[in-house]
Design a protein that fits this description.
Layout (H helix, E strand, L loop, with lengths): L3 H6 L5 H9 L7 H27 L5 H12 L6 H12 L5 H6 L6 H15 L4 H17 L3 H13 L3
């Protein structure tokens, strides 16, 4: 048994010293490490969300798509345009944006051009007046100069049906 005298002689720890001992416990993660782990887990979560979003968007959200689009635009009006357009359409299909669709009207495959015209026609109502007039001009040009009779007929029919 310890006596009262021994208890009095024993050095008592202050509250701050007791707190410091608690912080050294292996059951308590120090604050800087907690923050570090939280940052790490947050960055992992953000990266996973980013990859999941890219997966759901498909090929068109990838940097390769943007490079292929730039290549297609740079080859417009050159001899390489047809092969570049064929490769682009084969890999990514028809694009959804107006400017790329109008660019692809210079492609020489009549069946693809008719698909593009149909898609442009559905998008035309939501476009600006200038873009609508540009589309109308492209249709007039195709109606006059297309080598394929089916394409000429499709362009002429679309011109007649346009409300603007």
């Amino acid at each position: 048994m310890t006596s009262i005298k021994d208890d009095d002689e024993r050095e008592r720890l202050s509250w701050s010293e007791i707190d410091k001992l608690k912080d050294r416990s292996r059951h308590v993660t120090p604050e800087p490490k907690r923050r570090e782990k939280k940052k790490e887990s947050e960055s992992i979560r953000k990266e996973a969300l980013k990859q999941a979003e890219m997966l759901f968007r498909g090929k068109r959200s990838r940097p390769e798509y943007k490079k292929a689009l730039i290549r297609l635009e740079s080859h417009q009006g050159t001899a390489k345009f047809q092969t570049t357009a064929k490769k682009f359409l084969g890999e990514y299909g028809l694009p959804e944006d107006w400017s790329t669709l109008t660019l692809l009207l210079d492609y020489q495959e009549p069946a693809k051009i008719q698909e593009i015209l149909t898609l442009l026609r559905t998008l035309a109502a939501s476009r600006s007046r200038v873009e609508q007039q540009g589309f109308k001009g492209k249709l007039r040009t195709l109606a006059l100069t297309a080598g394929d009779e089916g394409l000429k007929q499709a362009a002429t029919t679309m011109l007649a049906e346009l409300p603007f």
